[in-house]
Specification:
Number of strands: 4
Number of helices: 21
Largest sheet: 2 strands, antiparallel
Distance between the termini: 24 Å
Number of domains: 2
Strand order of the largest sheet: 1-2
Helix content: over 70%
Order of helices and strands: HHHHHHHHHEEHHHHHHHHHHHEEH
Shape: globular
Structural class: mainly alpha
Strand content: under 5%
Radius of gyration: 23 Å
Length: 539
């Protein structure tokens, strides 16, 4: 037992900063969501109008939860629950991979496994830490709702459901770490499963059966294929059904047990999914360090580009549908106007989707910079820097590839938007809005590139945790700030919220200059400081 406590304490000590950011940030979002809903939709008529708009428009349901009535608590859960659960899921998958597959890559797992602790005890400690982290997160969410005076049972259930979804994806991360041979591959698999099931739940809700009064939705069978759907069907503050959350918890624990069995069935450093054999001769791309960085990160970049393509396709192909719904229900137009900040309804739809695109592009850039930290922590950066490659050149290569990733994601979205217009035989004048808004999001995403690079140079061990936290914070402020009634200056702290957009016949360039200045200053400062920084191994 003392060995187990030591392993658990070591994990908590390593993760203490990241866990505080994840758990406290999620609880703060939960609290802010209720405050914003109370201010923006204080009357039952306001909430009824918005629910009717959501049930009439599948696009809204793709990115929200399951409508369960006009009560304040149920309405708030409809707006924010999927994103609270998404934060819990991301925290859990990263934690699982960091203490399993990443430990094997660095060689630490083999050293620990050679002690009386063996191979299973460290994996068990990781699972227990993940369970405890989700318990704390769920408790803080419940306390946030109790603090604003919501009913006790609904508050406890909402917090429990968020934590239970996190436990499910803790199991997903633990299994992914056993299947894949590298931490990067395991993280990619876990993230794509997380995003895929989130979208699956949204589609399942969108094609469900609405109630006659347009205040509730019975989700389709697709929703029940997703842990997010299980969490949403608890219907906190309405039916208060606990059993779907218990299903989440049970599946997560079952996956954790499966991961322990897989750990016993394989050799250290190996995975169940075989890696491709390398080429006999290196390609010409690998003749430069820039080409090497591209080769190491191209899979992730292309994955984000596919997401950009789908986002662009939806932005224009659904714009006409939203316009038709808005003509009969002004609430849709009001919702989009809150988020987009102006323009007609088709422009607002493009702006909403391209705001999400800015987040995708930022994710691509942050992942590339985080890869530099992984190379440094794993010791594979040292042989490169031992050659005639300066530290500044090495970091500059990552910045160049990260910028290329941003451009590729946005370019894919522009292609998708054009395809959407062509498929709907739509108005090609909308391409002006697409190009302006897409260009603005290139600049906005570049801010995250510069900031993450600066973190990498100044505090390398915080690169991954803090870099992703900033993206999630920007997503919260940019997408939900206006909807929750945050002050304009708070919303404008998110780069994606102040990127240039089209409003009628004009282009709003107000935020462009500080975005350009922040990007330039951050990139220049990171490269300047990198010249004197020593390599920082994992710790």
């Amino acid at each position: 037992m003392s060995r187990f406590r030591a392993l658990l304490a070591q994990r908590v000590r390593r993760d203490r900063v990241q866990l505080v950011l994840w758990t406290a940030g999620t609880a703060l979002l939960a609290y802010s969501s209720f405050v914003g809903v109370s201010e923006s939709y204080g009357t039952e008529q306001d909430r009824t109008s918005l629910l009717a708009a959501a049930l009439a428009n599948p696009v809204i349901l793709l990115f929200r939860g399951l409508p369960s009535g006009t009560d304040e608590g149920a309405f708030m859960v409809f707006l924010i629950f999927p994103w609270l659960a998404f934060l819990a899921a991301m925290m859990s998958t990263f934690l699982a991979v960091r203490h399993t597959r990443a430990e094997e890559e660095t060689g630490r797992a083999e050293v620990v496994g050679a002690t009386p602790a063996g191979r299973l005890l460290p994996a068990g400690a990781t699972a227990v830490e993940g369970l405890a982290a989700n318990a704390v997160l769920g408790t803080l969410v419940a306390l946030a709702y109790l603090a604003v005076g919501l009913p006790v049972e609904g508050s406890l259930l909402a917090g429990f459901a968020v934590g239970a979804v996190g436990v499910t994806f803790l199991g997903v991360g633990l299994v992914a770490a056993q299947l894949m041979r590298t931490a990067r591959s395991a993280n990619s698999l876990a993230v794509w499963i997380t995003v895929g099931t989130l979208v699956l739940a949204g589609i399942g809700n969108a094609i469900g059966t609405p109630s006659d009064d347009l205040t509730r939705m019975e989700s389709s069978w697709l929703t029940w294929l997703s842990p997010f759907g299980w969490g949403e069907n608890t219907r906190a503050f309405d039916e208060n059904a606990w059993w779907p959350a218990l299903v989440c918890l049970g599946v997560g624990l079952a996956l954790a047990v499966v991961s322990l069995a897989l750990t016993s069935a394989r050799d250290v450093g190996e995975g169940f999914v075989a890696e491709r054999h390398g080429r006999e001769h290196a390609s010409a791309v690998l003749s430069s360090t820039t080409g090497l960085v591209w080769r190491l990160t191209r899979g992730a970049v292309l994955g984000w580009a596919v997401g950009g393509l789908l986002t662009g396709l939806l932005s224009t192909s659904l714009a006409s549908i939203v316009a038709e719904v808005g003509a009969s229900n002004p609430s849709v137009e009001q919702i989009l106007d809150r988020i987009a900040g102006g323009g007609d309804i088709t422009q607002a739809t493009v702006t909403v989707f391209f705001t999400m695109l800015g987040i995708l592009a930022a994710c691509a850039a942050v992942q590339v910079v985080c890869h530099a930290r992984q190379e440094e922590a794993h010791g594979t950066a040292e042989p490169v820097l031992a050659a005639p490659v300066a530290r500044v050149r090495w970091l500059a290569d990552y910045l160049v590839v990260a910028l290329l990733a941003i451009v590729l994601v946005v370019a894919a979205a522009v292609v998708g938007a054009a395809a959407g217009i062509a498929g709907q035989d739509g108005d090609w004048d909308l391409m002006r809005d697409v190009l302006v808004t897409g260009g603005g999001q290139v600049v906005a995403a570049s801010v995250f590139l510069a900031i993450t690079a600066l973190i990498f140079v100044i505090a390398p061990r915080l690169t991954i945790g803090l870099g992703w936290t900033l993206v999630l914070l920007a997503m919260t402020l940019g997408l939900f700030g206006p909807l929750f009634g945050f002050p304009e200056w708070v919303t404008n702290l998110s780069p994606v919220a102040v990127a240039p957009v089209v409003e009628g016949d004009d282009v709003d360039l107000a935020g462009l200059w500080w975005l350009v200045a922040a990007t330039g200053a951050g990139a220049a400062l990171s490269l300047g400081l990198m010249q004197r920084r020593e390599l920082a191994p994992a710790g």
